[in-house]
Amino acid sequence: MYDKILIGLDDSDNSRRATKRLIELQKKFNSEIIAFHSVLHHLSEVNPSYLGGGGGSVISLQIHEDYVNRGRKVLKEAEELFKESGIEIETRLIYDIPPEDYIEKIVEEENINLVVLGCKGSHSKLKRTFVGTVPDKVVNTAGCDVLIVR
């Protein structure tokens, strides 16, 4: 039924619960799993002299590297959870593409049958109020089934 499943991950408890639920599903369907994390921090192109001296670009680079390292950690933790259950997965660290856009694109391009997400990730309440959550958007745009895990 679900030959190919995509799971979007972040560093939230809901995402970890989604991972555990997907492990159960994979055992049932023997599906191929693709796990991804999206890094959306853009390196600043602001001239450091505007920031009252140097260092602005260095700080921006450090912040970007922190986001990338956190994304790698999220994917590695998920990969280890799957591996403990005897499941091999493909992991992808995606840069500068909002997760909902990546999901919509990849579902079509790679014939994904199911998208699995935690019900809300590590975003601010203000952002959720005005922009909505990734699961909100994916439920309305994905060209396949979507499982939202609480």
Task: Write a structural description.
This protein has 150 residues and is of the alpha/beta class. It has one domain: HUPs (Rossmann fold, 3-Layer(aba) Sandwich). It is built from five helices and five strands, in the order βαβαβαβααβ. A five-stranded parallel beta sheet has the order 3-2-1-4-5, sandwiched between helices. The longest helix has 29 residues. It is globular, with a radius of gyration of 17 Å. About 4% of the residues have low confidence.
Shape: globular
Taking pLDDT < 50 over at least 5 consecutive residues as the criterion, the unreliable ranges are 126-131
- The CATH superfamily is identified as HUPs
| Rg | 17 Å
Instruction: Determine the structural class based on helices, strands and strand pairing.
Output: alpha/beta
